[in-house]
Amino acid sequence: MWLITVNRHYSNRSGGCSNLRGDQAHDKAWRLAVSGGYEFEKDDFLGWRPGDFIEELYRLGVERLNRSACIAIEKALERKPFIYENKRLYVGSRTLGATVTSFAKDGQSLIACTYHGSVWGEKCKTCGRREYLGNGKIKRRIRKTHKEIQEAEKERKRVFAADKRR
Q1: Which of 28, 35, 33 is nearest to 64 (CA)?
Q2: Residues 145 and 124 in one domain
Q3: What Å distances lie between residue 163 and 97, 159, 160, CA to CA?
Q4: What's the number of domains the chain is made of?
Q5: I want to staple 66 with a disulfide (CB 3.0 to 4.6 A). Which of 61, 125, 139, 155 is the partner?
Q6: Which range among 20-29, 73-82, 124-133 has the greatest average pLDDT?
């Protein structure tokens, strides 16, 4: 975490009236550490408030398979991982026919939505994500608990195993 420590030390010396450059450098340093596969301790994110930035780091950790970052963020958010199809779910992931939009504050459930006129564009050649082209009107809001997701995963595996035997 040397890069982040150095950034904190020098961020006040970035010049200008605001700390915008320092904040941007700090954000980029965290993104680089997570996406670069750096090892994190379980308490590296303790004290962070829930919000868009930590959820973005969590998404990066999931997509880049940085398990230690995911575990540290889950501990900071006091949230057990929601796992479906052997992948952690994050805000923006698509699963069970819906898009995950948020997690409950108590960490016991997630909210996923389906949308009217949902149309997904082509995959980006760089990051592999699809651009949402729908009109944004929510068709259905779904709340799923850990237990419900585990049951859906068991059913998915059962169906997969039955299809494989054919």
Answers
A1: 35
A2: yes
A3: 20, 6, 5
A4: 2
A5: 61
A6: 73-82
Answer yes or no: do 3 and 73 share one domain: yes
Alpha helices in 36-113 (DSSP H): 52-63, 67-77
Buried b (16+ CB within 10 A) or exposed e, 24-35: ebbeebbeebbe
How far, in Å, are 16, 64, 69, 107 from residue 129 at the CA level? 36, 13, 20, 26
156 Cβ contact partners less than 8 Å away, ≥ 6 residues apart: 84, 85
Looking at the structure, tell me whether residues 73 and 135 fall in a common domain: no
Domain that holds residue 149: 81-166
3 and 66 in a single domain? The answer is yes
What are the respective helix, strand and coil percentages of the chain, to the nearest 5?
Answer: 45, 20, 35
This model's pTM is above 0.85: no
What pLDDT digit, counting tens, does each position of 76-109 carry?
989 999 999 889 999 988 887 888 989 998 889 9
- CA–CA separation, 43 vs 163, rounded Å? 43
- Among candidate residues 42, 60, 78, the one where a domain is terminated: 78
Whether residues 38 and 71 share a domain: the answer is yes
